[in-house]
């Protein structure tokens, strides 16, 4: 988490002076479940990319490349929308993943 | 050069607005403010001012439209009274929080109920913590002068806060008075052009007004408002000095009337200060050492200056034209007594709540207040700390 600024360092009145700065606000820590993507199963239909409300599906050259975990809030819509025959995304408890990896 | 005219408080405020020529005015009529907006709307209809006049369906909408226009970069004014102000409530706070320099006349009227249309200060005092600068007026001249200065105070880069100018309902708003108005060009040159730093219509620099402010930053924005209020005091004085060059009239944080050598004093707001002055003059002629402090700037509250002005006083009365039910006296009393605690000054301070719902206050009653103070000094006893002046038993 970046250092929070003091009252003398920020614009007055709650103004946001730069466009598109929502990217700086990291919402990944809100997650309870993390989408785990299986590249081998993925057919790159990009349904997850269309439905993701946080633009957290990373796409390059028309292909799914992974999930932006700094912004993904873990809503599970990608898992829901991934075609039943594909099932390339699985929601796993964040706490479980973190304790396994010692994160 | 100025011109001597006879105007009501409402016409004085309307005239100031016509001369200021704000970009946008959004307002809804309410007694006793109606004639003020009537006068201004007429000037718009006649083409005398090119203001965009927005007739809204409620005061909540009036302040909301004012906020939108101000955020877009316009110079914005409005006016209301009592229940209209109460209906604005949530957006009144937002105007200050977004740091929008809106200037509003508040024609003081008692808040219902039972429904009453006459003067007291329950409306402006209800808004005392909203983050607005409050300039109080003794007469129509001050309503006019405070509005013109208000624009310049509000838009100062160190301040950027909305300003409320009060005018006692009916007592000022509907009473003809002799006063002096400035020429249009003089007012225009004084207020100058509004050049806000950040506006919604500046498409080359897109910004966001009013985003969600969570526990991580809301407190910091409130702390900034504290600083703006602190800085406003100096700006009010600076604008006052500049205004004197234009008008010849003196404006400070408060007026000290016959305070030289005074032992007994009254602190009052608004038109009642005029009645107190009459009483002070009569008592001074009899050799009594009485004086008055007429508070002009209620927010930011001039605490250090008041302590300085009250040195030498032996007993003090604070007149409140509103009450804080279940509290310890009226809002002005609470503030003054809190200011004095720990200041090194120690004299008795009494509160007289008066004039609720437009109840008249007489010279005789004020004379009675000064004689009560005499008794307090002579006996070193306070019979009642909080008194209700002019209420029938």
Could you give a short description of this structure?
The complex is a heterodimer of chains A (103) and B (393). With 103 residues, chain A is of the alpha+beta class. Chain A has 3 helices and 4 strands.
Question: Can you describe what's shown?
Answer:
The complex is a heterodimer of chains A (103) and B (393). Chain A is an alpha+beta fold and 103 residues long. Chain A has one domain (27-101): Alpha-Beta Plaits, CATH 3.30.70.20. Chain A has helices at residues 47-51, 77-81, 94-101, and strands at residues 33-37, 57-60, 63-67, 89-93. In chain A, strands 1-4 form a two-stranded antiparallel sheet. The model of chain A has no long low-confidence stretch (mean pLDDT 93). Chain B has 393 residues and is an alpha/beta fold. Helices cover 41% and strands 19% of the residues of chain B. Chain B contains twelve helices and 15 strands. Chain B has helices at residues 9-20, 34-45, 59-71, 82-97, 122-126, 140-155, 184-191, 218-247, 272-285, 303-309, 331-340, 363-379, and strands spanning 3-7, 24-27, 52-55, 76-80, 103-108, 133-135, 163-168, 177-181, 254-257, 264-269, 290-295, 297-299, 315-320, 348-354, 386-389. In chain B, strands 3-2-4-5-7-6-12 form a seven-stranded mixed β-sheet, with helices on both faces. Chains A and B meet through loops of A and α8 of B.
* The named CATH superfamily of the largest domain in chain B: Thiamin diphosphate (ThDP)-binding fold, Pyr/PP domains
- Kindly estimate the percentage of residues of chain B that lie in beta strands according to DSSP: 15-25%
For the sheet with most strands of chain A, the description reads:
2 strands, antiparallel
Shape of chain B: globular
**CATH topology annotation of the largest domain in chain B:** Rossmann fold
| CATH fold label of chain A | Alpha-Beta Plaits
Helix/strand-derived category of chain A reads alpha+beta
**Shape type of chain A:** globular
**Nearest-angstrom radius of gyration of chain A?**
17 Å
The number of distinct helices of chain A, counting runs of at least 4 residues, comes to: 3
Q: What's the helix-strand series of chain A?
A: EHEEHEH
What do the pLDDT scores of chain B average to? 97
Strand order of the largest sheet of chain A: 1-4
- What share of the residues of chain A does DSSP label as strand, in percent? 15-25%
Tell me the CATH architecture of chain A. Answer: 2-Layer Sandwich
Top CATH class of chain A: Alpha Beta
Class of secondary structure makeup of chain B: alpha/beta
**Uncertain ranges of chain B:** none
Task: Provide the domain count of chain B.
Answer: 2
Strand order of the largest sheet of chain B: 3-2-4-5-7-6-12
Q: From the coordinates shown, what is the CATH architecture of the largest domain in chain B?
A: 3-Layer(aba) Sandwich
